[in-house]
Amino acid sequence: MNILHLTTFLQGGAGRILTDLALAQKSRNNEVYVLSSKTSEPGYCSYEEYINKLQDNNIPLYEEDSSFKRDLGLNLHFASKVREIIKNCNIDLIHAHASVPALTGLIARSGLKKYIPVIQTMHGWGTNKKPEHEKMDITIMNGLDQVVTVSKSDKELLIEKGVQKEKIKVIYNGITLEQNDEVDPVVAAELLEYKKRGYRIIGCIGTLCERKNQQLLLDAIKLLGKDYNLFCAFIGEGDLLPKMQKQIEQENLQKNVRLYGYKPMASNYIKYFDVFVLPSTSEGFGLTIVEAFKEKTLVIASDIKVFQELITDGREGFLFRNNILDSLIETLKKVLCLSRSKIEEVIENGFARYQKEFTLNRMIMNYEDLYTIIVSQD
């Protein structure tokens, strides 16, 4: 099968899923192509680690502006590139990873003798969408052959928004058990030094932004760090970084908090954490939680719907009330006082959940089955 993936940028969890999926499809004797936006935007770009993986595996990556901006002229220009690839590479199926790329796929396939199915994985519903953008995205999705959500809660959300129920299928994201040990040696050494000095390492990975809500964790560490001997490592860059760094300096939190910025293969640092915390107010899935399950690291997360799908409080991890500082503080205190036997029980439950539902192979097989059904219908 000849598959074309369309995306805005190869970034974050969605970029990782697209890259892993493309590599797996290539290894299964499919011809795979990827097209993304060329010019970076504030807070948005394609990560070199994903670009390099595609190149190392001989997967063509095309870049053209723009599948990111909601600009008809730029979108039509991008669609013309999609159409060119369809014709030159005899594409059988288009897999988009956001609504604007999906729109360009719909435009590009129109009028062709061969019907090209277009599907979209909705990796998360942006919290800052304008009403007109919501309507646009819903209209696009209702025109697709299939919409995939990465959680049941997102499926319910799309149905509430007006996407046809029969068009939506849930496929959980998956990750491989295999990994490399690539880390920044300076960061790794610092984390190990803090452990050696008796600190408990609290870790958080993700773009520093309001939606990920790292500010809440910083406020909790400010109140708990010294009394509980905590060191908190934030890995990621974003809009909140300058504000958080200023607070750390003004309030003399340097001994208890470090902002490490963006790091390739960020999930490789989870094994250094005693507790992984994800305080997001909104997520499409929560891939780093699954990474923590795989690494057998304790997890604390906000009790948003998608995280309730991943964690039963006290079983695979621990939940606190969304965006409530006191609740996060109390949950941290409880987890830090757990017995070794309870810690091991929760860790093993999380690992078992990963093995049962969130492996890369399971995700790949689910997409392969979906592709086969959609292509055979046309």
Automatic annotation (TrEMBL):
Q: Where is the Glycosyl transferase family domain?
A: 197-349
Give all residue intervals belonging to the Glycosyltransferase subfamily 4-like N-terminal domain. 12-178
InterPro entries per record: Glyco_trans_1, Glyco_trans_4-like_N
State the source organism's domain of life. Bacteria
- What are the protein's GO molecular function terms? glycosyltransferase activity
Which protein is depicted? Answer: Glycosyltransferase family 4 protein
Instruction: List the taxonomic lineage.
Output: Bacteria, Bacillati, Bacillota, Capillibacterium
